[in-house]
Specification:
30 strands; about 35% strand; 2 domains; Methylamine Dehydrogenase, Chain H; about 15% helix; single chain; Heat Shock Protein 90; mainly beta
Length: about 425
C-alpha cells in the first residue's frame, strides 16, 4: 500500500502488473460497462446505476450540475470527444452530451433511432451505431447515413474510428470496416460473434483491441503483422489512457489496469486462472447491486433480450425474498445475468423463464426452450468464450453448485444451488466489514 493509501493487488507478469486501483476500494463500481477519459484528465465509468467520475483520488457518482438530468441511469457506452465533452449512450438507446456542465439529450423523438455506440474520427466526424444502421451528427442534429454510405446491415451495435481513419462497425454477426476515402464496407474475416455489446480501443503501437462483452479482450486478428494478444477476463469495457496504460472494466471484478501492455504482445493470458489477490479482492468487496431484489434485477437483465427479435421473458419467485450475504448476492447476480444473456443470444429460444426459490436453500433456475447446446459446451464452455467457465467458477467461490442440462428437445436449464447456511444472512447478525 502506498503512502497515499492506494492499494495495489497484482500478479507479476514480466514487466507488467494487473491492478485493482483505489485508496478506497469499496468505492470502485464492480460492474463497469464503459470507460472514457476526457481531456481534463477525468476518468469516467459507466455502470448500470449511473456514471462515476474518478479525479485521481476518489470515485464519485456524477450528477449533472445546475439541476440537469440524464434520461436514464444504465449506461451502455461512453465517448470522450476531442472538444473535451463527454457523450453517453444509455441501455435505453438515448444519448446525452455533457458539455461545459450542460446536458443535451437525444432520443427517437428527435429522429435518432435507438443507439448502441458512438465514434469520432480524428477530424471530428461523429457517427452513431443504431437499430437502423448508421447516423451522423452535424450542426446539432442527427441524420441517418446508412444508404448514403452503402452500409450493408440492418443494424449496427458498435462503431470505432482507427487513427488511420478506418471506420469499424460491429453488426452483431460480423465485423465490417470502411477504409479511409473508401466507398464500400469490407469484411476483414474476423470470427463471427454475438455478444450484447462491443468496445474498441487502439493501443499506442497502433493495434486495435476489441472487447466482446463478458468474454475476452483481444487484438483484432486481421491486422496483418500484428500478433494476436488475448486477455481472457470477462471484460466489459476497455481504454488506453494518455500514458499508454490499458484499463479494463471486468464484469463483477472491478477495474483493472495493465501498466505496460506492450509486454503482453502476442501472448494469451487467462485471467480466470490467476488466483493471487482473489482472497484480498473478495474481502474488500461489498454488494454492488443496491437492495436485495434479485427478481427485479433479473427482469431488467431480460429487457436486453429484445434487441434482434421478440422473446417472451418471465421471472417467478418461490418463497419470500431473504437477505443474502453481499458477496454471494453479487455472484448470484452475475451467474444469472450470464445465463439469461446466453439464452437470449445463442439458444434461438422463443421463451426464457427465470425462477428464484428461497424456500430452503437458494435455488436459481434459468430455462429456455431453444435448440440446446453440445454436452462439451455445457461442461466447459465454448473455445474462446468464457461465460460458462466464469459461471462455474463464481458458483464454486460461494460454495454453490452449478448444473447445466441441455437438449435439442427441451432447451437448456441452468440451475444454481447454494446452501442456505452460506447464502443467507442470519437474523440479528450484522455483516462484518473489512478495512
Amino acid at each position: 500500500m502506498s503512502r497515499s493509501g492506494t492499494l495495489w493487488i497484482h500478479r507479476r507478469q514480466s514487466r507488467n502488473s494487473f491492478i485493482l486501483c483505489g485508496p478506497i476500494a469499496r468505492e470502485i463500481p464492480q460492474n463497469i460497462q464503459a470507460l472514457a477519459q476526457t481531456s481534463d484528465g477525468y476518468l469516467w465509468l459507466g455502470t448500470p446505476t449511473g456514471i462515476y467520475r474518478f479525479d485521481g483520488t476518489r470515485f464519485a457518482l456524477f450528477e449533472p450540475p445546475g439541476g440537469g438530468k440524464f434520461p436514464a441511469n444504465r449506461v451502455r457506452t461512453l465517448l470522450a470527444s476531442r472538444d473535451g465533452s463527454l457523450w453517453v449512450v444509455f441501455v435505453s438507446g438515448a444519448v446525452s452530451h455533457l458539455l461545459h456542465d450542460s446536458v443535451t439529450s437525444y432520443t427517437e423523438k428527435d429522429g435518432l433511432p435507438r443507439v448502441f455506440g458512438l465514434a469520432e474520427s480524428e477530424d471530428g466526424l461523429l457517427v452513431a451505431a443504431t437499430a437502423k444502421g448508421l447516423s451522423r451528427f452535424q450542426q446539432g442534429s442527427w441524420t441517418d447515413v446508412s444508404k448514403d454510405w452503402s452500409f450493408p446491415g440492418d443494424a449496427a451495435q458498435q462503431v470505432y474510428f482507427g487513427r488511420d481513419g478506418t471506420l469499424w462497425v460491429a453488426t452483431g454477426q460480423k465485423l465490417l470496416s470502411l477504409p479511409p476515402r473508401g466507398s464500400t464496407f469490407v469484411d476483414p474475416g474476423e470470427p463471427s460473434f454475438a455478444p450484447t455489446s462491443f468496445h474498441f480501443a487502439q493501443a499506442p503501437d497502433g493495434a486495435i483491441w476489441f472487447v466482446e462483452d463478458g468474454y475476452s479482450a483481444h487484438t483484432l486478428r486481421s491486422q496483418g503483422s500484428v500478433p494476436e494478444t488475448v486477455i481472457r477476463i470477462g471484460a466489459g469495457s476497455i481504454l488506453f489512457d494518455r500514458d499508454g496504460s490499458l484499463w479494463m472494466g471486468a464484469l463483477g471484478d472491478g477495474l483493472l489496469r495493465v501498466d505496460a501492455p506492450q509486454s503482453l504482445r502476442g501472448r494469451q493470458i487467462d485471467w480466470f486462472r490467476i488466483q493471487e489477490g482473489r482472497a484480498a479482492l473478495r474481502s474488500l468487496r461489498t454488494s454492488t447491486i443496491e437492495g436485495n431484489e434479485l427478481a427485479e434485477d433479473f427482469k431488467r437483465a431480460g429487457e436486453e433480450c429484445t434487441f434482434e427479435r421478440p422473446i417472451e421473458f418471465a421471472v417467478a419467485m418461490k418463497g419470500s425474498s431473504r437477505t443474502m450475504h453481499p458477496i454471494v448476492r453479487d455472484e448470484v447476480y452475475r451467474i444469472g445475468c450470464e445465463a439469461i444473456r446466453n439464452a437470449c443470444l445463442h439458444s434461438e429460444a422463443s421463451r426464457v423463464d427465470v425462477e428464484l426459490d428461497y424456500q430452503n436453500d437458494l435455488i436459481v433456475r434459468v430455462q429456455d426452450d431453444g435448440k440446446g447446446m453440445e454436452p462439451y459446451v455445457a461442461r466447459s464452455g465454448k473455445a474462446g468464450h468464457f461465460g460458462v467457465v466464469g459461471m462455474y467458477e463464481r458458483a464454486a467461490r460461494v460454495g454453490g453448485k452449478l448444473t447445466i442440462t441441455s437438449s435439442a428437445e427441451a432447451g437448456t436449464l441452468v440451475e444454481l444451488a447454494i446452501p442456505r447456511s452460506l447464502a443467507f444472512q442470519q437474523p440479528g447478525l450484522e455483516q462484518s466489514s473489512h478495512t
